[in-house]
Design a protein that fits this description.
- The protein is of the alpha+beta class.
- 38% of the residues lie in helices and 38% in strands.
- It has four helices and six strands; from the N terminus they run ααββααββββ.
- The chain has a six-stranded mixed beta sheet.
- About 4% of the residues have low confidence.
Length: 157
């Protein structure tokens, strides 16, 4: 009886360790997708940016700062909204720092909340951001992006 209990305990501990390691792997993959989305956007790399999104009718993008609020429903509209940006902007040399607050995985879905600081030689911006992702064909893709800028912005050093 004692050996059966010991075996069950060992199996439970092994399974728990394996689950935690898998969870950490998923969270790292999710953070990498979120970081790639931001870096691609700032570097005006449309293909890489598009690759981070799931082209779904329910995809959603929103941003709010001191100049106003904008939101876009559906991947086709999101993609079209950024046509001019990707045609006219130059890559940024900003330093981007993410401070991860929550990364939660729910089966093939994930919720991410973080603070993002973007700093260049002129100014410093801080936003509170949320991403919702879905895992499709083994890859995490963004379906919802929400960012709210801190106002007034932090002063540059």
């Amino acid at each position: 009886m004692k050996s059966t209990a010991t075996l069950l305990l060992a199996v439970c501990l092994f399974a728990t360790g394996r689950t935690a390691a898998q969870d950490d792997k998923e969270k790292s993959a999710i953070k990498a997708v979120v970081a790639k989305e931001t870096e691609s956007f700032m570097n005006v790399d449309r293909k890489s940016w598009t690759d981070t999104w799931l082209p779904a009718t329910y995809s959603y993008w929103s941003y709010s700062d001191s100049t106003g609020t904008n939101f876009v429903d559906g991947w086709a509209n999101i993609d079209k909204t950024f046509d001019e940006y990707f045609r006219t902007q130059k890559p940024s040399r900003s330093k981007i720092t993410n401070v991860w607050q929550e990364v939660r995985v729910y089966g093939n879905g994930a919720y991410v909340r973080f603070l993002q600081r973007v700093e260049d030689e002129i100014d410093k911006d801080e936003t509170s951001q949320v991403r919702v992702l879905e895992k499709k064909d083994g890859k995490w893709k963004i379906i919802c992006m929400n960012a709210i800028a801190k106002y007034p912005p932090a002063a540059a050093k």
